[in-house]
Amino acid sequence: MSTKLLFIGHLWPEPTSSAAGYRTLALLKALSGHYQLHFASAAEQSVYCADLDSLNIKSHPISLNDSSFDRFIRDLKPDLVFYDRFITEEQFSPRVNEHCPDALSILDTQDLHFLRRARQLALNKKQPLNLYTEDAVREIAAVLRCDLSLIISIYEMQLLISDFNISPELLHYCPFMFDTATLKPDKLPSFEERKHFAMIGNFLHPPNWDAVQWSYQAIWPAIRKALPDTELHIYGAYESDKVRQLHQPEKGFIIQGRAKDAVESLSHYRVNLAPLRFGAGIKGKIADGFMAQTPCVSTPIGQEGMAEYLPWGGLLSDNSNDHQQIAEYAIELYHNKNLWIQSNKNAVNIIQKQFDYAEHSKNLIDRLHKLQTEITTHRNNNFYGRILRHNLYRSQYYMSKWIEEKNKA
Question: If you classify domain 4-177+357-408 with CATH, what class do you get?
């Protein structure tokens, strides 16, 4: 296992803080059995970072706009370089390409940031959706520059191919990966043993914070009126003062803070609420609920990329802005035992069919191995990507050098 793989993270992976952190760790686990794995990040580490040493992954703190990275990458000489999000690719790929031009470049998009931001802007400004933004230019340029981009949802794969004419040869479908053997259909609490509603999601993520506010203002009052003895328990990492101000037990609106184990926490609730009005990718909060066999009430945005052709594990509103329908569906799912049991079975089926770790990790490794053997032809077929790499090198690299000299001064 002499092939070296460097994973450059926008953040150090925090699997208990966000779905992005969980996804990164799952990718690292899938890769660690096949490559000599190194992880580097310019971010500060927190106490919630995953223990990479236990996975035999070497950690490296690095710096932005600093020639120390040049020395680092020259000494390491990786055969593959993963970039976590397009911003990281913009920041580090010019220096990687200068010193290791033959290294495979892989972009993990996490989700399409330009899609999420465009939807957020359309919601906030009450205007039609416009995908052709500066964010899209930057993110799709990164996709074209890289040899392969991991796309978390089939919807986003189709969007890139149909709306932006991206070659399927540059894309690889890689959703969340769960060990389906850990599902316990007969060992988790039953319908009668569960009570209350739950929400979960990192409070720093704009779609999650919007969902919390919308629930507080419109959805939860309608549910609470019909079910006065129920409570909504909201879990999430990095709660701020503005989040804590919504903690109102007298209204049944309870901020729980960080969940040590999302699946275990959700397994005690009867219904998982995910009233998402904008977003992209696939939703870790819903997948965790399905792993806990907790049916979900969500929106078309929440469902996107999750189930595809399979029956939903709960109920879905007709659009992503109908708070009354979401409340009605939440009440119905809470009361209707037969519906809840069927939704529970659907949730397990979605996890098994859509997010199986063994299947998707094997597909990823096979794709990487194939790409390594065909890289010359692959790059010749992506000449526009070569042009963009050249232009980024000339602009971003020299800007980075200028910032480095300015910082020294």
Answer: alpha beta
